[in-house]
Design a protein that fits this description.
The complex is a heterotrimer of chains A (327), B (383) and C (376). Chain A folds into 2 domains: 2-92, no CATH class; 99-290, MetI-like (MetI-like fold, Orthogonal Bundle). Chain A has 13 helices and 2 strands. Chain A has helices spanning 2-28, 34-44, 51-60, 67-80, 93-128, 133-147, 150-165, 184-221, 224-231, 236-274, 279-288, 292-320, 322-325, and strands spanning 85-86, 91-92. Chain A has a two-stranded antiparallel ribbon. In chain A, helix 6 packs across helix 8 (184-221). Helices cover 54% and strands 13% of the residues of chain B. In chain B, helix 4 runs antiparallel to helix 9 (286-323) and helix 4 runs parallel beside helix 12. Chain B is built from 12 helices and 5 strands. A 3-stranded antiparallel sheet of chain B has the order 1-2-3, with no helix packed on it. Chain B has a two-stranded antiparallel ribbon with strand order 4-5. The N and C termini of chain B lie close together (4 Å). In chain B, strand 1 and strand 2 (90-102) form a beta hairpin. Chain B has 383 residues and is α+β, with helices and mostly antiparallel strands. Chain C folds into 2 domains: 14-140 and 220-309 and 317-366, Rossmann fold, CATH 3.40.50; 153-219, no CATH class. Chain C is 31% helix and 22% strand. Chain C is built from 13 helices and 12 strands. In chain C, strands 6-7-8-3-9-10-12-11 form an 8-stranded mixed sheet, with helices on both faces. The longest helix of chain C has 18 residues, at 236-253. The chains are: A mainly alpha (327), B alpha+beta (383), C alpha/beta (376). Chains in contact: A-B, A-C, B-C. Chain B binds chain C through residues 7, 9-11, 14-15, 17-20, 22, and chain C through 26-31, 72, 327, 329-331. The structure holds adenosine-5'-triphosphate and magnesium ion. Residues 25, 27, 32, 34, 52, 54-60, 70, 72, 146, 262, 328 of chain C line the site of adenosine-5'-triphosphate (ATP).
Chain lengths: 327, 383, 376
C-alpha cells in the first residue's frame, strides 16, 4: 500500500509539472502581453507611465528574456507563493485566491457528497427494481439531469424559489444577514441558501453516477459470487448490500477522479448565476478582462485540487479493492 | 449500460418466433437491427432529423427575420391566438397588439388588442432572407398579412423586439453544428493519437498518456474558457466564422482525450488478437495493419464514443457562450441567446427568454438517446 | 406409467423428488424452453450424476431446485419435493428458528411434532427469497458452482465468506464461525488453513478456490450438495484431487451429492447412478454400471462412443455425434434427438415424444425402441 501511494505520488509530481507548464502557456496565449494590457490599464486609469516604469515592468516579468527563463521565473515565484498581481483588483493574486478557492472546494465537496448519496440510492433502487415504474421515472430524471445545463437549472430553481417560497436565494446570505453577526437565524439563512447550489452543482453528476451505479450493480448482480451468496441462504438485502454493492461501488470510485472536474466546472459557472463568492465569477471575469495572472493561478490551483482529489480516489480504491492493494 | 426501456423481456409475444438467423447476420446488420428495435434511439434519430430540418429551414419557418428589431414589440410576449374571427368565421386568428408607454415604469408595454383579429396565413410575404445560402426569397411558412403592420411572435421577443422563435432557430444552426464539427475534429485527433499510443506503445504511448492525463486534470469549462479567452476579438481579419471554427477546436481540445483512451484500449487488445498476429506473420506493414485491420474493427466504437460526446460539446458551447466567451454577437447560438436571461428578475418578467434553454435540453436529450442507442446496438454488454 | 417415473425407491430412502419440471426463460429472442419435464428421485446418501451436452439444462435443473433462477425465468410446471430428515430438522439454526417462529404465532411449515419423522417440503411452493427457502438454502441444500474463479467474492477473505454461512445457519459468533471455517478448510485438505482464512480469493489458485467452495458448501453439513461441474475449469491433476476429496467427504459426511458434469469418465469415478439429459429432458436414467455396459438410448450410446475408453482397440475410431444440439428456442415435434439419431424411425420419432418408461428395475429410458408409450 505504501509503495503504491509513493508510485502514485511520483506520477502526480510529473503531471503537476506539466499542468503548470500548460497553465503558463495559457497565461501567455492571449494576444498582446500582460504588460501591454497593464500599461494600457494604468493609462486608462489616468496614470501616465514613463518609459522607465514600463521597462521596469518588463524587467519585473522578465519579458526581455527567453520563454523558458520566463517560465522559470513564474514557476519559482509561484512556488514561493507570489502568483503575480491581479490588475483589476490591484491586489496580489494570492490575496484574492484563497478564501474563494476554499469556498469553491467546500461547495464542490458538498455537492459531491450529495450526488454520491442520491446516486447510490437511486442506482441501487433502479437496479434492483428493473423495469418497474420507479426505474423508468429515475431513467427519465437521469436523462433530464444530464441534458439541462447547470446554469439553466440554477435559473429555473431560483425562479421557482422566488415564486413559490418567496425566497431570494442568490448569494450566501439574505441581504439583512450579510453584515449581521453570527446567530442561529443567520445559520438557518445560510443553509437556506446552500441547498440550491448544492443540488444544481451536483445534478448532472448525480444523474451520471446513478446510471453508472445501476449499470454496474446490474453487472455485478449477474456475477457468480452473488449467486454463491444467495445459495448460502442470505437475505436479498445482505446479498445486494454486502456482496454486490461492495463490488459495484468500485467503478464508482474509479470515476470519482473523473467526476471532480465536472463538479468544479459546474461550480464555477453556477456561482456566476447564483452570485456566490467563489472562484467562478472572478475567474471568468479575469478571462474576459485578460487578467491572466489571476486566471492562470486559479486554473493551476483548480488542477492541483483535482490532482489531489484523484490521488484520494486512487487510495480509496486501493482500500476498497484488495486486488489493487496487494498488487 | 443496457437500455432501460427497450430490452424489457417481452413475455408472451415472441412465443412462436424462433430466431435462428441470428448467427448468419453480419456485424453491421446486427447493429442496425438492434438499433432499429430501440425505441428511444429511434426517437432520438427522427427527432434530430426533424430539428436539423427545422433550424436550417429556420428563416423560412419563422415568420420574421431574426435580426429584425420591432420597436413596438420590445419584450413582447408570445402572440395569442383564437379560432373565431371578428365576423364569427372559423379559422386561426392572431390577436393584434399595441404598445403603450407606461409612464410610471417608463417603459413600453405590449398589450393585446381584443378587437384586432388577424387571420394566420400560409406562405405569406415578409422580411427578405437567404435560405441555405442560395435561395433569395421573402416567403415565410406562415404569418399574418404584412399590410396589417402586425407580426406573429410564437415565442415572444427580446429586449430589442427581435423574434425569439426566429433567433432560437438560427441559433440552433450554430449550436447544433458546433458539436458535430467539434466531434469530427476530436475523432481525427483521438483516432490518430489513440491508435499511435496503443499500437506503438513505448515512448509515444507514455507521452500521449501523460498529455491526456494533464488535460483531463483540468476542470473542463474553466479550461475551455481560458482557451476561448485567448482567441482574438472579431475583426476584418478574424471573422465570426473563424471564431466559430476555433471554438470547435477549443471544444475538441478536451473532447479527443476520451476517444483516444478508448481507442488505445481497443488497439492494445487487438494487437494481441489472432487476426492481428496473423497479419504480422504474413508480413503486413504497420500502416496496413492499422488501416485495414484495426480502424475498421474499432469503427463502431469510434462512432459510439463520438455520438456520446456530442451532448457534452453542445453543453460546453452553451456554457461558454452564456459566459460571453464563446459565440459572440452578432452571431447567435443558444448559449449566446441565454445571456439575456442571466437575471432572475428578467426571467420572472419575460420567461420566454429561457426558450433557447429548452431547445438545448431537447437537443442534448435526443443526442443522448441516439448515442445510448448506438452504444447498446454496437456492444449490448458494455456499461 | 409416465406419471411415476424414476427408479422406484421407498420414500424413506429419497431425499429429493423432482417431477415433470418445466422451466422456461423469457428472453429478447423469445422463450427458451430450458427444462421440458425433468423427473427423478435422488436416494439418500448416494451420488447421482447428471450428464449431457452443454446447454441441455443441467445447471438450470440444479438452480430450479435451489430456487435460484434469475428473474427472467419461471418454473412453469412440476413439483420439487424435499424430504427433510430429522437430523436436519433438529439442526441448531433451524430449531432456533422454529421457536422464534412459533412465538410470533406464525405458522411454521416445520412443526415440532414432526420431529423424528421425515417431512415433505414442496420447494416449488416456497417464496424463493422467503425465510423458509433461505433456511433450507446453504444449510440443507448447498451448491457449488461451475467456475471457481468467479464463485468467490473478490473483496472478502475466504474466512469471512465461509464463516458467513456458518454464522447464519448455526447461530454462532464470529470467532466460533471462523474456528469452524478453519476446521472445515482442514477437512477439505487445505494446507495451512489458518493462513488461508485471511486470504482473498485472488491470492488462491483455482484448485484452492474450488476447495474453499467445497468447504463452504459442506460447512453446514447439508442434506444435498449440488456440484455443478466443480472440476471443469481445473487441470487434470487438480481435478483428480478434487474428485478424490469429494468422494472421501461424501463417505465421511454421508451427504447426498448431485454431480453435474459432461464428462462420463468423471461419472464412472464418482457416481452411483446417472441421469442423461438431452434438451431439457432426462432421456435415460440408471445405475453407473448399466450406463456403461448396457446403455439403451441411442443418445447415451452415441455419447459413450464419442469418448475414448481404456481397453478399446486403438484402431477404433471415436464417433462424434453428428449434427448439433438444436437451440432451445424452437419447438421440436417428436423426440428432440430424432434429427441426430441413428435409429430414427420416420413417422414415429418425429411425430410424438416417447414417455419415460421403466425397462428393468432401476433403469428407465425415453425411446420408442423400447416402448410405444407416448408422453401426453
Ligand atoms: N440466464 C439465462 N437466460 C436465458 N436462457 C438461459 C439462461 N440460463 C440458461 N438458459 C438456457 O437454458 C438452457 C440450459 O442451460 P444450462 O445452463 O442449464 O446448460 P448446462 O447443461 O448447464 O450447460 P453447460 O454444460 O454449458 O453448463 C440453455 O440452452 C440456455 O439457452
Ligand atoms: Mg451449466
Amino acid at each position: 500500500m505504501g509503495s503504491y501511494i509513493l508510485r502514485r505520488l511520483g506520477y502526480m509530481a510529473v503531471t503537476l509539472l506539466i499542468v503548470t507548464i500548460l497553465g503558463y502557456i495559457i497565461i501567455e496565449l492571449p494576444p498582446g502581453s500582460y504588460v501591454e494590457s497593464e500599461v494600457e490599464r494604468l493609462r486608462a486609469q489616468g496614470g501616465n507611465l514613463t518609459q522607465g516604469q514600463i521597462d521596469a515592468l518588463y524587467r519585473r516579468y522578465g519579458l526581455d528574456k527567453p520563454e523558458y527563463v520566463r517560465f522559470w521565473l513564474w514557476i519559482s515565484a509561484f512556488v514561493r507563493g507570489d502568483f503575480g498581481q491581479a490588475f483589476a483588483y490591484n491586489l496580489p493574486v494570492s490575496q484574492i485566491i484563497f478564501d474563494r478557492l476554499g469556498l469553491t472546494l467546500a461547495f464542490s465537496l458538498s455537492s459531491l457528497v450529495f450526488s454520491w448519496v442520491v446516486a447510490i440510492a437511486a442506482g441501487v433502487y433502479s437496479a434492483t427494481h428493473r423495469y418497474t415504474l420507479p426505474d423508468y421515472v429515475i431513467a427519465v430524471l437521469q436523462f433530464i439531469g444530464l441534458a439541462v445545463p447547470n446554469f439553466l437549472l440554477a435559473l429555473v430553481l431560483m425562479v421557482f424559489a422566488q415564486n413559490v417560497f418567496h425566497m431570494q436565494v442568490a448569494g450566501l446570505f439574505s441581504s439583512q444577514y450579510v453584515d449581521a453577526p453570527w446567530s442561529i437565524a443567520k445559520v438557518l439563512d445560510l443553509l437556506n441558501h446552500l441547498w440550491i447550489p448544492i443540488i444544481v452543482i451536483g445534478a448532472s453528476n448525480t444523474a451520471w453516477l446513478s446510471r453508472v451505479m445501476r449499470a454496474n450493480l446490474l453487472d455485478v448482480l449477474n456475477m457468480q459470487y452473488v449467486q454463491t451468496a444467495r445459495a448460502k441462504g442470505l437475505t436479498e438485502n445482505v446479498v445486494v448490500w454486502k456482496h454486490a454493492f461492495r463490488n459495484a461501488i468500485h467503478p464508482l470510485i474509479m470515476v470519482l477522479g473523473s467526476s471532480l472536474p465536472g463538479i468544479i466546472s459546474g461550480e464555477t459557472i453556477v456561482a456566476i448565476v447564483l452570485n456566490l463568492p467563489t472562484t467562478g465569477p472572478i475567474y471568468f471575469n479575469a478571462l474576459i478582462q485578460k487578467d491572466m495572472y489571476l486566471a492562470g493561478a486559479f486554473l493551476v490551483f483548480l488542477a492541483i485540487a483535482l490532482l489531489i482529489g484523484n490521488l484520494g480516489a486512487d487510495i480509496l480504491l486501493a482500500w476498497v479493492d484488495p486486488r489493487i492493494r496487494y498488487e | 449500460m443496457e437500455n432501460a426501456v427497450t430490452s424489457a423481456p417481452q413475455l408472451p409475444s415472441a412465443v412462436d418466433e424462433p430466431v435462428s438467423e441470428v448467427g448468419q447476420l453480419s456485424q453491421w446488420t446486427l447493429i442496425r437491427m438492434r438499433f432499429a428495435r430501440n425505441r428511444l434511439a429511434m426517437i432520438g434519430m427522427v427527432g434530430l432529423i426533424f430539428m436539423y430540418a427545422l433550424v436550417f429551414l429556420g428563416p423560412f419557418v419563422a415568420p420574421n427575420e431574426y435580426t429584425y428589431q420591432n420597436q413596438d414589440y420590445i419584450f413582447g410576449g408570445p402572440s395569442e391566438f383564437t379560432f373565431t374571427g371578428s365576423d364569427g368565421s372559423f379559422g386561426l386568428f392572431m390577436y393584434g397588439t399595441t404598445s403603450v408607454l407606461d409612464s410610471k415604469a417608463f417603459k413600453f408595454i405590449v398589450t393585446k388588442d381584443e378587437n384586432m383579429k388577424l387571420p394566420v396565413q400560409l406562405f405569406v410575404k415578409g422580411d427578405p432572407y437567404t435560405l441555405l445560402g442560395v435561395i433569395n426569397t421573402d416567403v415565410h411558412l406562415f404569418g399574418v398579412d404584412a399590410a396589417s403592420k402586425q407580426r406573429v411572435y410564437l415565442m415572444g421577443a427580446d429586449s430589442l423586439g427581435r423574434d425569439m422563435f426566429a433567433r432560437t432557430l438560427i441559433g440552433g444552426q450554430i449550436s447544433m453544428t458546433i458539436g458535430l464539427v467539434g466531434v469530427a475534429i476530436s475523432i481525427v485527433l483521438g483516432s490518430v493519437l489513440g491508435t499511435t499510443s496503443g499500437y506503438f506503445m513505448g515512448l509515444a504511448d507514455d507521452v500521449i498518456q501523460r498529455i491526456i492525463e494533464v488535460i483531463s486534470s483540468f476542470p473542463t469549462i474553466p479550461l475551455w474558457a481560458a482557451l476561448a479567452a485567448a482567441l482574438p476579438p472579431i475583426s476584418e481579419s478574424f471573422t465570426a466564422l473563424d471564431r466559430y471554427f476555433l471554438i470547435t477546436v477549443v471544444l475538441s481540445f478536451v473532447g479527443w482525450t476520451g476517444l483516444a483512451r478508448q481507442l488505445r484500449a481497443k488497439v492494445t487488445a487487438y494487437r494481441t488478437s489472432d487476426f492481428c498476429q496473423a497479419a504480422v506473420a504474413a508480413g503486413s506493414t504497420d500502416r496496413r495493419i492499422i488501416f485495414t485491420h484495426m480502424l475498421p474493427n474499432a469503427a463502431s466504437h469510434i462512432i459510439v464514443s463520438a455520438a456520446l460526446s456530442i451532448p457534452g460539446m453542445i453543453l460546453g458551447e452553451t456554457a461558454l457562450s452564456f459566459l460571453g466567451l464563446g459565440i459572440l454577437p452578432p452571431m447567435v447560438s443558444w448559449g449566446a441567446l441565454l445571456r439575456d436571461s442571466q437575471q432572475v428578475s428578467v426571467i420572472i418578467q419575460y420567461p420566454w427568454l429561457l426558450i433557447p434553454g429548452v431547445a438545448v435540453v431537447i437537443a442534448v436529450m435526443l443526442f443522448s438517446f441516439l448515442g445510448d442507442g448506438l452504444r447498446d446496438a454496437v456492444d449490448p454488454y458494455s456499461i | 406409467m409416465s406419471d411415476k417415473p424414476g427408479p422406484k425407491a421407498p420414500e424413506q430412502d429419497i431425499v429429493l423428488r423432482v417431477n415433470d419440471l418445466h422451466t422456461y426463460f423469457y428472453t429478447d429472442l423469445g422463450i427458451s424452453r430450458a427444462l421440458n419435464g425433468v423427473s427423478f428421485d435422488i436416494p439418500v446418501g448416494k451420488v447421482m450424476g447428471v450428464v449431457g451436452e452443454s446447454g441441455c439444462g443441467k445447471s438450470v435443473t440444479a438452480l430450479s431446485i435451489m430456487r435460484l433462477l434469475p428473474k427472467s425465468s419461471k418454473i412453469i410446471k412440476g413439483d420439487i419435493t424435499y424430504f427433510r430428515r430429522p437430523q436436519h430438522n433438529g439442526s441448531a439454526g433451524a430449531s432456533d428458528q422454529i421457536k422464534q417462529k412459533s412465538e410470533n404465532g406464525q405458522q411454521g411449515f416445520w412443526i415440532d411434532e414432526n420431529a423424528g419423522k421425515v417431512q415433505e417440503i414442496r420447494l416449488n411452493d416456497l417464496d424463493p427469497m422467503g425465510p423458509e427457502m433461505r433456511h433450507i438454502r446453504g444449510a440443507e441444500l448447498a451448491m457449488i458452482f461451475q467456475e471457481p474463479m468467479t464463485s468467490l467474492n473478490p473483496v472478502y477473505t475466504i474466512g469471512d465468506q465461509i464463516s458467513e454461512t456458518i454464522m447464519l445457519h448455526q447461530r454462532v459468533n464470529k470467532a466460533e464461525g471462523l474456528r469452524r471455517a478453519i476446521d472445515i478448510l482442514e477437512k477439505v485438505g487445505m494446507s495451512n488453513p489458518k493462513l488461508i482464512v485471511g486470504n482473498y480469493p485472488h491470492q488462491l489458485s483455482g484448485g484452492m478456490r474450488q476447495r474453499a467452495m467445497i468447504a463452504m458448501g459442506l460447512s453446514c453439513h447439508p442434506a444435498v450438495l449440488f456440484a455443478d461441474e466443480p472440476t471443469t475449469a481445473l487441470d487434470v491433476t487438480t481435478e483428480a484431487q478434487i474428485l478424490d476429496l469429494m468422494r472421501d467427504l461424501q463417505a465421511q459426511f454421508g451427504t447426498t451429492i448431485v454431480f453435474i458434469t459432461h464428462n462420463l469418465g468423471v461419472v464412472a469415478q464418482m457416481c452411483d447412478s446417472v441421469s442423461v439429459m438431452y434438451l431439457g429432458r432426462i432421456i435415460e436414467q440408471t445405475s453407473v454400471d448399466e450406463i456403461f455396459y448396457n446403455p439403451k438410448h441411442p443418445y447415451t450410446s452415441a455419447l459413450l462412443n464419442s469418448i475414448p475408453h481404456i481397453g478399446s482397440r486403438s484402431k477404433e475410431r471415436l464417433q462424434p455425434i453428428r449434427g448439433v444440439v438444436p437451440d432451445p428456442y424452437s419447438k421440436i415435434v417428436g423426440c428432440p434427438f430424432h434429427p441426430r439419431c441413428n435409429a430414427f424411425m420416420p413417422g414415429k420419432c418425429d411425430k410424438a415424444m416417447p414417455a419415460q418408461t421403466v425397462i428393468s428395475p432401476g433403469h428407465n429410458v425415453r425411446c420408442f425402441l423400447y416402448s410405444d408409450e407416448v408422453e401426453e
